[in-house]
């Protein structure tokens, strides 16, 4: 989910692309969680669409991607695609500002919530 769309730039857009790697090396914090057997990208897309998560409005400060990630992880957990408790762990990690480069520490930061459009 990334901002920059709509007349005010606050509408989010989901971009799905194929990559040859499991995760980006360009990160300061990595969280891993085992997925259920048979989970596919299509199942995740279907869940996002079914729950209306593709219709997201960022805050006026262009924040909200951390909240969107938490909500989608919560949806995956509720659907049984990942184990219970993962969403709570993700929220704890998202509630911190992770300094660059990786390993430089972190500090508390409020997770600002955008809104889901009808």
From TrEMBL:
One of the Pfam families matching this protein, by short name: DUF7770
Top-level lineage group: Eukaryota
Domain DUF7770: 1-116
Protein name: DUF7770 domain-containing protein
Organism: Cryphonectria parasitica (strain ATCC 38755 / EP155)
